[in-house]
């Protein structure tokens, strides 16, 4: 029994080591850039104290915020579905008793999800009911906007993507930290490039003494400038894209595969307007936005939806519901929702294959 156990432990260590290679690479680049910037530039080449002190001060402030955000992104555990979304063993056995009977499985899931706050469904044949989103690996009914991550081996709340550079899922739990990591990384690269370009130009200027001076510091500073410039371009494009997603209250997965509501797929289903979308991720306290601390709103399980989505229009007491978004979710009781099946009496008589709908009604 010891051999298989030690072999499994060895495999686990190897897998974790391989997954950590991108993180180790970034930390090595960061360590070298710190040596090149602090020692070779600020302490060796910048002779003016009026310049070197501000350079070092600003650089270290940005570096601390960058590392703080980066490690928070790495070590924040992705949130999984609450226990009430997991099928009991007897229900799961009943669900798997006849795998080819899809209608029976769908009925079991609908009965189980009757009191769960679910507004999105899986894509199926348009002439039938939309099925409840279910993960057979985790044995749970998937909450809205959650997806199963094959790397983390769990269903992750509001999953955006799995990022190898942080060796973690970017999701509801750490999305703010991830954006701050990109922002401070971009800021640091721009600052380094801006403060080193003067010396890079002097190295190539034949009229200056620096061109004929000997020293390995030239190579460090020149490489530092070009690496900071290249990283600036990639970080800018990535940060701009995620700022756009935040402004639309959309994840990377949802931008490629829009969430499906009862009336169909809608990529703007969770779009509440730019300001409210930003507060969904960064919270209500604007002064805390620049710091990688938890200020997110809601619980990551249920989300307010756009008023143009038919489900939102079907909610009773809409004037009250307009004010109860996830901005107030810390005081919001999700048990106020219950799921019922209703028929659309206004359905066109020519559409014989049109489905019935499952609306979420607030009572």
From TrEMBL:
GO cellular component: membrane
Coiled coil: none
Keyword set, alphabetical order: Acyltransferase, Membrane, Transferase, Transmembrane, Transmembrane helix
Record family assignment: Belongs to the DHHC palmitoyltransferase family.
Acyltransferase listed as a keyword: yes
Domain comment as written in the entry: The DHHC domain is required for palmitoyltransferase activity.
Entry's Gene Ontology molecular function annotations: protein-cysteine S-palmitoyltransferase activity
Superkingdom in the source lineage: Eukaryota
Recorded catalytic activity of this chain's protein: L-cysteinyl-[protein] + hexadecanoyl-CoA = S-hexadecanoyl-L-cysteinyl-[protein] + CoA
Membrane topology, record value: Multi-pass membrane protein
TM segment ranges: 20-39, 51-71, 177-201, 221-244
The protein, known as: Palmitoyltransferase
This enzyme's EC code(s): 2.3.1.225
